[in-house]
Design a protein that fits this description.
Length: 111
């Protein structure tokens, strides 16, 4: 839970680095929250509940993805490859799963 809260506290921090555990734990908690909100939205007849949540965490999700790419010594511009249908998402997933560079890189010290 601390990973999720740390990302939300640093919601607009697009510089620096994020380790794999920080990124993937945030993604896991985000997925769990989204599923719960879809269920709750269906029960209370408000299907947009999950969409409201998605908009609320859009900036923190982008920020942690940028920092994750920085940890692998890649520019945050690589996130745009995810816009390429199918193959772009696979390439981005591979980048996000790779181990970060050990020690300092051009984006700073490892957190």
């Amino acid at each position: 839970m601390n990973y999720y809260l740390d990302v939300l506290r640093n919601y607009a921090g697009f510089s620096g680095r994020a380790q794999r555990s920080e990124y993937w734990m945030f993604t896991l908690f985000n997925l769990i929250a989204s599923v719960l909100l879809v269920i709750i939205g269906a029960v209370i007849h408000f299907p947009l509940l999950c969409g409201v949540y998605a908009l609320a965490v859009l900036v923190p999700a982008l920020a942690v993805a940028f920092r994750r790419l920085h940890d692998t010594d890649r520019s945050a511009a690589w996130i745009l490859i995810g816009l390429v249908p199918f193959i772009g998402a696979i390439i981005l997933l591979v980048f996000l799963c790779q181990e970060g560079t050990r020690g300092p890189n051009r984006y700073g010290q490892r957190a």
